Amino acid sequence: MTIWFPDLKLNACSPDIELFRNVILDFSEVPNIGQAFVDEIFRVFAHGHRHIKLILINANIEVMGMINRATSRAGDDGN
After folding, report:
1. Which of 21, 33, 35, 39 is buried most deeply by CB count within 10 Å?
2. Rounded to 5 degrees, what are φ and ψ at 32?
3. 35 CB contacts (<8 Å, ≥6 apart)?
């Protein structure tokens, strides 16, 4: 997954992502998200970038449910 920052010409795959301490994920008009997306962002990315705080806004109950399930399982395997 790539998160684009158009004004900065930067994406989540860029080494410059390390410059950020907070990343805002705006789920406006996003009705649902898949398990692969949730796993990549909230387990893999979050584990590899512990200094970056992921801030969620405008997430509906279904999106939050997927995120909560993934983050509650994240500790099960030691990650």
Report:
1. 33
2. -160, 165
3. 66, 70
